[in-house]
Amino acid sequence: MMTTFSCCLLYIASYGIVYVIIAFCIVHNSFVVAQNNETFQALSYIEKATYIFNDNRIVLLILLVLTIFSIIWTRYIKSWKNNTRVRFRMKEDSKIDESAFILPYVFTVVTFNFDIYGWLICLLIYGSVGLLFVQSRKLQMSPIFILSRYHILTDGTNKIITRNTVESFNLKLDDQPNGIEARELAKHVYITLER
After folding, report:
1. Which of 16, 136, 173, 187 is the most exposed place for a label (fewest CB within 10 A)?
2. What gap in Å lies between CA 118 and CA 64, rounded to an integer?
């Protein structure tokens, strides 16, 4: 099972696309504001990029580090080893139900603004959703799995994150009487990591 620290890292990594969007918005907004400056207009393209980067250097570096971390963590998940076998027959794909958890990510981007209040609201949503995510152990709701084209299958109690549909998973289960190799992420939440 994943530790609390691992759940925190998964949550941070799940915002990977949001970090990129926010960085793009910062650069775009800085460029639009700087266009009104005649000195800025006289600069070459590389000088303009350097000017914008220097103006927002700390935030852009933090977002770059978080984006790189998200990429590394997502690749790391795919290198995990299976540690159990599951023998549950799945009944439905709950990917649509689970994808409702993407709404906080959308709200983070929408509430992000370039003044201090927008940043505070953005950080408040980020922190409160993160606390809820880690405490509830609803790991299957991470956008990392949904955006990586995994299905979230359920039998009512157990959830399995897999690339298989319900039918193909159950057929695979019929072919393997000892169960399908999986990794337990949290209580009643498994992921099948196929090589």
Report:
1. 187
2. 20
